[in-house]
Write a structure and sequence with these properties.
240 residues; 7 helices; globular
Length: 240
């Protein structure tokens, strides 16, 4: 069955007919750069669509909702490594703002209705079946086609790449482990003292320089890339 998250009536029918126990929502409009071109797609899918998910979970007494957030919520935080206890109040892209909003909306439903929710901040996932707008596929195709690749911030960028199989393992473990209400006294934005709510980072903690990444692709292809060095793209972060 195929539908858009923002189509409320089909979503309600889906929950009515399938009698889910747990829900894992990985559907969203992803990507930082596309949010500059089509912001409405992010609001429709990530905000309107997510409230439809929350409402369906609430009314069908779902035991646990796990959902995709993003490392983009950290914005330009300079403290490394990034921690779920860090402030994420200053997103620098609309995509990041919608993912931060998802975490806030989830906490609200956890608090009001006792719906256990877990947000998963993914860190640059790579591997088979990746999105075609990811750097790996863009760079590879351009190099093979003798086209230049765009190297933003003059190559001075760092990313924490996480293999998709590791992401899947983390997601599966989380689905079967709904959060409870925290009894911790010290402040921590990733948990709640009033709601069954939790946020996790899912990453590799081995950041890679962009130029080293490009070099690995060149080595695998046996071909040097034609590089077009550019300034930092709006909405991008220097390091994750």
């Amino acid at each position: 069955m195929r539908m858009n998250l923002e189509d409320r009536e089909p979503m309600d029918r889906l929950f009515e007919e399938e009698h889910f126990d747990n829900v894992c929502n990985l559907a969203a409009q992803a990507g930082v750069r596309y949010s500059l071109k089509n912001p409405h797609a992010y609001i429709n899918s990530n905000i309107v669509g997510f409230i439809n998910i929350l409402e369906a979970c609430r009314h069908k007494n779902i035991r646990h909702l796990a959902y995709a957030s993003s490392s983009s919520v950290y914005g330009n935080n300079t403290k490394i490594p990034l921690s779920t206890g860090d402030s994420v109040d200053h997103p620098i892209s609309l995509y990041a703002a919608t993912k931060k909003s998802n975490e806030l909306m989830a906490h609200t439903y956890s608090h009001l209705y006792g719906l256990p929710t877990t947000g998963l901040r993914f860190f640059t996932v790579y591997g088979p079946w990746g999105r075609p707008d990811m750097a790996l596929f863009l760079f590879t195709k351009a190099i093979l086609d003798d086209q230049p690749i765009k190297v933003f911030n003059n190559g001075n960028m760092v990313r924490d790449f996480t293999f998709v199989d590791d992401i899947v393992k983390g997601v599966i473990r989380v689905i079967d482990t709904p959060p409870g209400i925290s009894d911790k006294k010290e402040p921590d934005v990733s948990i709640s003292n009033t709601a069954p709510y939790k946020v996790y980072n899912i990453g590799n903690s081995s950041p890679v320089q962009l130029m080293k990444y490009i070099g690995a692709i060149e080595k695998s292809l046996g071909k040097e890339a034609r590089k077009e060095f550019l300034t930092m793209q709006p909405g991008d972060v220097y390091r994750t």
